[in-house]
Write a structure and sequence with these properties.
Cytochrome p450; alpha+beta; single chain; globular; about 10% strand
C-alpha cells in the first residue's frame, strides 16, 4: 500500500527536533533578514506549513485568502524546505514584476525535478537567461506574430465548423450527449484539436486527437496531484514513493511514442521541401484520418533551433516544448470560454447585446458566413469587452507560475531573500474594490468608453488592475493567441446559437473547483438553440 500523508509525517517525526535545532543554528546569523520576512502562519519542521497537508485544490487558495486577510497583502509560507512569498496587492505586484522586472524574472529551482527526470527546459520553466530568451523569441516570432497566426486560419475555421456540428447534435439530443460529455469537455476537445494542428502541422482524425489528449491529460493531472510530495525531502520521498516515479516514467514514454512519429513526419517533409528527398516521394501520412497538412507548424520552428555549439534540440527537449504548447493553450482557453458562455447564459441581455453587434458587423462587411478573424480583431469592441470581463471575473489561473527572486529585494517594507519562490494572487487583483466598481458583477460595459475599465492594460505595463496572463518579463507569450481564440470562438458560438438556461437550474458562476485550471464547480449546462439565420453557415 502506498504511503499516505499521516504515515509520512509519522515516519519523519523522529528527525523533526534535529532539523529544528539545525535550522535555528543556520539562521542565527541571518536574523536581520528573517525578522523582516512578511508574516505567515506557524511552521512545522520538514513539512513547513500544514496548509499544504490539510488542504487540497481550491481549499488551498481559500486558506491562503484567509491568511492574507489575517496577515496582510504579503504572506510567507513554507512547503517543505522551500520558502514562498505570496502577494495579493496589485500595486506591490506591479512594483515586483514590472518596476523590478529583472530581479523577479527567474524561476525557482526544484531539487525534485532532477530526481524525477523533469529537467528539460521550456519557455515556462527555463531560468531567466539566454535559453529562455531563445525559446520565447521563437514562439513569439513564429507562432504568436500576427502574420504567422494567419497561417493557422484554415485550421481554426475547420475546428470551429466541427465544434458547431457537435453543439448542434447536442441541441438535437436535448442537450444530453453522453459521448461528448459536458460542454466544457467539448470546448477542451476543440481547443486541443486546434493546438495539435498548430503544433504538428497535421489535422489528425478525432480518434488520434483524443488518444493524444488522454495521454497528455493523464500525465498533467498525475504530475499536478501526485508529485507534490517530492517537494518534501526529495532524497527520502523519491524512495518512499517509488511507484509514483515509475508511473510518471511510463506516462512520459507513452506520450513520446505518440509525439515522435508526428515530429519525424515533419522532419521528412522539411527535407523534401529542401530538395533532400526526390520530388516524387509521397508526403508522410499518420493514418487514413489525416485530412490536411498545414504549411507551418510549431514543430517546424523547433527543428530550426540551434543551442550552444550549434546542436539541435534533443527528442526529450522537443517533447517538453510540444507538451508545453498543448498544455498552455488548451485548458486555459476552454476554461475561460466556459466561464464566458456561462455568464452569457446567466445574463441574456448581455448575450443579446453581443448578438446585435455580431449582426451589425456582418451586415457592414457583407458577410453571410461566420465571423472572421479580421472582424473580431478590428470591428467588435463589445465582444472584446465581454472577453476582458470574463478574464477579469474568472481568470483560468488564480495564481501565476511561480517566480524566484534573483537577489535580496525589499517589497512592501519587507525583505524577500534571494532564491525565494514568489507568487501573485491573480484573481484577487481582478476583484479589488479599490480598482473596480462592483467587481463581483459581470459587467462588460466597464470596458467600454466611460467605464471604469476603459483602456485597461491587461499586460500590466502601466499598472496592474487585472493580470490573467501574468505581467512583467515572464508574461504569457501566448496572450495574443489566447485572446484571438476566445474572441473568435465566443463570437461564432453566439452567432450560431442562442444560449439559454436549463429550466429549473441556476447557472452557478460563483462555485469554483481546482483542476489544472479553476473551473466551474457545477459544469455549465445550457439549452443550445440554433439561430435560423446561421443554420447553413458552418458546413
Amino acid at each position: 500500500m502506498e504511503l499516505t500523508w499521516p504515515l509520512l509525517a509519522a515516519l519523519l517525526l523522529p528527525i523533526f527536533s534535529f532539523l529544528l535545532l539545525l535550522s535555528s543554528t543556520k539562521n542565527s546569523g541571518k536574523g536581520a533578514i528573517h525578522r523582516r520576512l512578511p508574516p505567515g502562519p506557524t511552521v512545522v519542521p520538514v513539512l513547513g506549513n500544514l496548509l499544504w497537508v490539510r488542504n487540497h485544490g481550491i481549499d488551498i487558495l481559500r486558506a491562503m485568502r484567509r491568511l492574507h486577510a489575517r496577515h496582510g497583502p504579503m504572506l510567507t509560507l513554507r512547503m517543505g524546505s522551500r520558502l514562498e512569498v505570496t502577494v495579493s496587492d496589485r500595486r506591490l505586484a506591479h512594483a515586483a514584476l514590472v518596476e523590478r522586472g529583472a530581479a523577479m524574472a527567474d524561476r525557482p529551482g526544484f531539487a525534485s525535478r532532477d530526481l524525477l527526470g523533469l529537467n528539460a527546459a521550456t519557455i515556462s520553466t527555463s531560468r531567466y537567461g539566454p535559453l529562455w530568451r531563445l525559446f520565447r523569441r521563437n514562439f513569439v516570432a513564429e507562432v504568436a506574430n500576427p502574420a504567422r497566426l494567419r497561417l493557422f486560419a484554415p485550421a481554426r475555421a475547420a475546428v470551429l465548423a466541427e465544434l458547431i456540428d457537435k453543439l448542434r447534435l447536442r441541441s438535437e439530443d436535448g442537450g444530453e450527449d453522453q459521448e461528448q460529455g459536458t460542454i466544457l469537455e467539448t470546448f477542451q476537445y476543440a481547443m486541443f484539436r486546434l493546438l495539435v494542428a498548430m503544433c504538428f502541422g497535421e489535422r489528425l482524425g478525432e480518434r488520434a486527437v483524443r488518444d493524444i489528449a488522454a495521454a497528455q491529460r493523464d500525465l498533467l493531472m498525475y504530475s499536478s496531484t501526485k508529485v507534490r510530495v517530492f517537494a518534501f525531502l526529495p532524497a527520502v520521498t523519491t524512495r518512499l514513493f517509488r511507484g509514483r516515479l515509475r508511473a510518471m516514467i511510463a506516462m512520459r514514454q507513452r506520450l513520446k511514442g505518440m509525439y515522435m512519429p508526428l515530429i519525424h513526419a515533419r522532419m521528412e517533409r522539411k527535407k523534401k521541401l529542401a530538395g533532400a528527398v526526390p520530388p516524387s516521394a509521397e508526403p508522410p501520412h499518420q493514418d487514413d484520418e489525416t485530412t490536411t497538412t498545414l504549411p507551418h507548424s510549431y514543430v517546424d520552428t523547433l527543428l530550426d533551433i540551434r543551442l550552444d555549439g550549434g546542436r539541435p534540440l534533443t527528442e526529450d527537449e522537443m517533447i517538453a516544448l510540444c507538451s508545453e504548447f498543448l498544455n498552455g493553450g488548451t485548458d486555459t482557453t476552454s476554461t475561460a470560454m466556459q466561464w464566458i458562455m456561462a455568464e452569457l447564459v446567466k445574463n441574456p441581455a448581455i448575450q443579446d447585446k453581443l448578438h446585435d453587434e455580431i449582426q451589425s458587423t456582418m451586415a457592414s462587411t457583407g458577410s453571410d458566413n461566420h465571423i472572421s478573424e479580421e472582424d473580431v480583431q478590428h470591428a467588435m469592441p463589445y465582444l472584446r469587452a465581454v472577453v476582458l470581463e470574463g478574464l477579469r471575473r474568472h481568470p483560468p489561473g488564480h495564481m501565476v507560475l511561480p517566480h524566484a527572486a534573483a537577489e535580496d529585494m525589499e517589497l512592501g517594507g519587507y525583505v524577500i531573500p534571494k532564491g525565494t519562490t514568489v507568487n501573485f494572487m491573480v484573481a484577487d487583483m481582478g476583484m479589488d474594490e479599490r480598482a473596480w466598481d462592483r467587481p463581483g458583477e459581470f459587467t462588460p460595459e466597464r470596458f467600454m468608453p466611460g467605464g471604469d475599465g476603459e483602456g485597461v492594460d491587461i499586460t500590466g505595463t502601466r499598472e496592474i488592475r487585472m493580470m490573467p496572463f501574468g505581467a512583467g518579463r515572464r508574461i504569457c507569450p501566448g496572450l495574443n493567441v489566447a485572446t484571438l481564440h476566445l474572441e473568435y470562438f465566443v463570437a461564432n458560438l453566439v452567432r450560431a446559437f442562442e444560449w439559454r438556461g436549463v429550466e429549473g437550474e441556476e447557472v452557478d458562476v460563483d462555485g469554483e473547483k481546482a483542476e489544472f485550471t479553476i473551473v466551474m464547480a457545477k459544469p455549465l449546462r445550457a439549452r443550445i438553440v440554433p439561430r435560423a439565420a446561421a443554420s447553413q453557415c458552418y458546413s
